[in-house]
Queue: 2 jobs
Job 1
Amino acid sequence: MNSDRFGIGWRPRLAAGILANLDRIEIVEVIADDYFYAARQERRALRTLGAQTPVTLHGVSLGLASSVPVDSRRLEHMARLCGEIEPAFWSEHLAFVRGGGIEIGHLAAPPRCEATIEGALANLAYAKQIVGVAPQVENVATLIDPPGSDRDEAAWLSAIVRNSESSLLLDLHNLHANAVNFHFDASEFLTRIPTERISTIHLAGGKWIGREGSRRLLDDHLHDVPDPVYELLEDVAFRAPQPLTVILERDGKFPSIESLLDQLDRARHAVARGRERLLQREEAA
Amino acid sequence: MSASRLETFLARIYVDDVAREQFLADPRGQAMRAGLRSDEIENLVNIDREGLEMFAHSLQHKKAKKLQRGIEGTWTS
């Protein structure tokens, strides 16, 4: 229970703050795709970072949750980067990002159906074959109820995680956003997924968009982590006794590094509360 | 095969304003012309229109921001 670790997503604007506070940051998550075509010097800098602190590589453009086979060239880039950096693990989203040669430009929730489950499982197996290790897989936020779906997110996500070698990177702000946008209970969602397969947690913030009365929560990574996400984190720490890696993601409107470190401390406290509840339940049993 | 056609269809209406406008004006006709299955067509007829517009708008906003920063091709999750 004491192997939980807490870290921050690496962004150039945060570099100095992260490097100056490695005593309070136990792991750093790097967007892998930003280094696929990077100059040798930049990749060397990444290796130097990896020598100072554990690093994880996070993919955003593979589009693994698709009925279309994943692009082998992108996987080879990931394999090469993993070989060079030797990350603690690598991860990617359960999203589709292109179709018929059209680049969507962001992560889209695929139709939640048998075809995308089968496609994701095939793509995950192929990713493991090329990279050597299966990625952790992340749930995505969506503003649109994914067209073509015949099941809900918990059922779809569970089918992929249970039938693959991948563990789950559970993004709690994505879960929170989907829950408020599509009117389901995020805590109940946690009872329906294989929480024993959660390895990593993402924390982030967002903002409300749209007209009054029909607003939706956009996961924009530009705002502080809201209270309900810390409450979900405590719940996960209670339900998942295995060591967790918790990563705070911030992509812009950067506050001070102290503010980000404070949010990381709030995450530590939330996990500690969940672990304490777990201990009390075990002692009472 | 139809599953990949559906993904292509969705990608197009997410990023292409004209295709989205045509789809919203005649969802059944556009989905049929794309060769989708009857269940997929029915599903698209009942699409979450508000969500579609919001998602399309957020994609445009992200693209504009990336261009503004001059970092087209740089991703964040």
Job 2
Amino acid sequence: MSTENNNTQPQQNLAFPGHIEELPGGGIVLSKLDDVINWARSNSLWPLTFATSCCGIEYMSVAGAKYDFSRFGFEVARASPRQADVIIIAGTIVNKMAPVLKRLYDQMGDPKYVIAMGACAISGGPFFYNTYSVVKGADHVIPVDVYVAGCPPRPEALMHALITLQQKIKSGLTREQIRASND
Amino acid sequence: MGLTNEHIKQRLTEKFGDQLINFEEPYGMLTFEAPRELNLKVLNFLYDDEELKFRFMTDLCAVHYPDNKGKELAVVYHLHNLVDNCRIRFKVFAPVEQPDVYTATGLFSAANWMERETYDFYGVNFVGHPNLKRILNVEEMDYFPLRKEFPLEDQSRVDKDDEMFGRG
């Protein structure tokens, strides 16, 4: 682990957006509302309980005590898409599942984010991509913000993806945010 | 074990004579072939007979033999006698042009979904099935994907290089 990395990138992203205007007897925090909202949202991302194959096991591992993604604000996996902010596509999406995935995505309230976890969600998978039943990448169905390589990705990889998503939200660069700012 | 393969075979032969053929015992499991019109009669006999008592349907599936002219599709039944812990397997064959086989749903409720799956992948038409529609594949699918005329993999893909997957 390089100390250089620790000191530059993450600190920037972990810090509260804005700066303190020093005044006699105290100070005032100056910031942009958008930045504060993005900061708040990125630290409270509730994932949807959704897994279609073996990646789901790694996902559960990340949710469990050992890796514990609640430390980063992925507090609780919600069983209803209406309460979820992020959907982690953990597994193969088959043709029959595709409309279900689309519907779940549509049912999630804005703003919503998507992580494609593992080879199946990215491209149909290393084994199944060439069959009659598999969607060749979940981004054929819903837009994806972050892709995680692996089959399945290790828990650390998924955590890295989650933190990448947080950074993306803080910089206002997710598809959802870009679409909203264009409206 | 009270029930031996020889005894089962003898009981079946007493009942059905030479209509049941190709008796085999791969890995010790009694296997035979029946005419497809007799599938329910055989199932009923195996179920009702006070000695045989094959009252649990373990599996029902199909196999496609494209070179077996007139008998391209086999429907395979696996039954289990839970009292004597004895298993049995039998097959009926149907031509692929008209794959009609009587449904076993009247005898085994478990056959309902298994026959739907068999229909889904092989197109076996289970005559009398209460709800014969696709179960695993999308309903719009207009072919039966596990028949041998469909290659194992979609050969039209060019954007994926097999070498990257260790099988170039």
